[in-house]
Amino acid sequence: MDRHTPQQRSKNMRAIKSTETKSEVRLAKALWHIGLRYRKNNKKVFGCPDLTFRNLKIAIFVDGEFFHGKDWETIKKPKTNSEYWIKKIERNIQRDLEVNHYLESQNWKVLRFWSNDIKKNLGACIAVILNTINYRTQQLTNVPPSWE
Predict the structure, then answer these.
(1) Which of 32, 82, 85, 106 is deepest in the core (most CB within 10 A)?
(2) Does the reported pTM lie above 0.85?
(3) Cα(61)–Cα(50) distance, integer angstroms
(4) Domains identified in the chain, total number
């Protein structure tokens, strides 16, 4: 049973942001602090990634565990308004897969982080991003010129 009245629950849910979440801001500030420059919520890139390195074709998404269905097959499903939430979360999972597939088909590298992973182990997330940046930079510099 829900602890809140429907009006309180509605107010709480309306307050949840889709951009500038704490985890997204924390990751962005850490990357900026080490000298990396990126675009935030770039609408020109399919799926509107949270952070992009456009010249390297790297798209970074910070996903919330509830809305993006972390461990969806094993966790308990919502009990209130379950028909709505199950449909919504399953569609979010499907959309994430579609976005990944499309971007990868366009030679983008997609990185997805759970917000709790950023909260608990920011250093490991940054290490993954730095490794990806180094790898993509190396790929670009080792490509022979197109006129040869």
Answers:
(1) 85
(2) no
(3) 5
(4) 1
* Local confidence band at 78 (pLDDT 50, 70, 90 cut-offs): confident
CA angle 80/81/87 to nearest 5° reads 125
Backbone φ and ψ for 109, nearest 5 degrees, come out as: -100, 120
- Give backbone dihedrals phi and psi of 35, rounded to 5 degrees, phi first: 95, 10
**Quick check: is 145 in a domain?**
no
pLDDT of residue 52: 96
114, containing H or E segment: strand 109-114
In the three-class reduction of DSSP (H, G, I as helix; E, B as strand; rest coil), residue 138 is classed as: helix
DSSP state of 42: -
CATH number reported for the structural domain that contains residue 63 in this entry: 3.40.960.10
